[in-house]
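User: As part of a screening pipeline, I want to sanity-check one entry by hand. Below is the sequence and the SMILES for flavin-adenine dinucleotide. Please return the complex as structure tokens so I can compare it with the automated output.
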Amino acid sequence: MKYDVAIIGGGPAGLNAALVLGRARKTVALFDNARPRNRVTHASHGFITRDGVKPSEFRRIAYEEVLGYPTVKHWEIGVTDIRSSEEGFVIDTSAGEQVQAGKIILAGGLREELPEIKDIREFYGKSLFACPFCDGWELRDQALVIISDQPHAFHKVKLLQNWSRDCIVCTNGAAEALNVEQREQLAARGITVIDTPISFLSGQNGMLERVHFTDGTSIERSGGFIDPAQIPNLDFSEALGYDTMENGAVITNEMGKTTVEGVYAAGDAAYVMPSQLIYAAASGSKAAMAVMADLTEENWKLL
Ligand SMILES: Cc1cc2nc3c(=O)[nH]c(=O)nc-3n(C[C@H](O)[C@H](O)[C@H](O)COP(=O)(O)OP(=O)(O)OC[C@H]3O[C@@H](n4cnc5c(N)ncnc54)[C@H](O)[C@@H]3O)c2cc1C
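Assistant: Here is the complex for your manual check:
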């Protein structure tokens, strides 16, 4: 059987695409290897009607809705390769199965590389986060650390003042992340900057208590924000020929169409910003509409 559309990645982007396509009576092959980016966190925020929902519960509800449409089939498995064929595309799964589809939506999300600080994974998603809009409310008025060696460190500090006025900035040895003028502005507002590299973090059950530096000093902090590097999970650009950004994310137009006919992308895979569930879901919906526009034209010629 050849499916109308294969969706690679069943997070909010891929699931919302599957919902739109299932409702449009298209046959959909939905592949997901169940490694969503937010699996490290206890609750998701900022999605109306789902504020504070557990990521696993969000997915449970979404799969229940999507798989209620009989033309959508779910494989809980990874896709290892995709190539073009005369009929459209052939998808290889990690179980050695081959599936054919006329269109492809890439929605595999991204993975994060955390700063190289001992035990940081233990705290990420519990008391250390990446996005103030997702988790700032939960850390409001707390003693926060902002760990960033990125050029936008200054912007992040300014933004975080909306949630807590007790922020200490750690450049983790990358003093160049803040210039002289930015340091003056921070000092004028009583915001401390520490450039000494961090040696480790301490706390209980993922709840941060202290940040320890290589010179033996430490500061008491109960939470904070970091700037992980973000790397797209899927890279089929060589096989399929679509254009990518410098970081490997898929380049698309406003509707999620890539530079290759029949290939679309949504969510974190296409670096849809701000990187949040609601934008990922919306972009999945748009990619599905773009697929529908193309299928409608193709099918019209055959009627
Ligand atoms: C700690 C943390 C907290 C967050 N908190 C919030 C929050 O409170 N509110 C909010 O709106 N956003 C939050 N986010 C951001 C949110 O998780 C992302 O914006 C959202 O998950 C992006 O959706 P997506 O569908 O693009 O990718 P994902 O949700 O990551 O889904 C991609 C899916 O594709 C699958 N996949 C990848 N490669 C393959 C493959 N080769 N074959 C098959 N399947 C594959 C993955 O297993 C995964 O299930 C948070 C992120 C993190 C890291």
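Points to compare against the pipeline: The chain has two domains: 2-112+229-302, 115-226. Residues 115-226 form a domain with the FAD/NAD(P)-binding domain fold (CATH 3.50.50.60).
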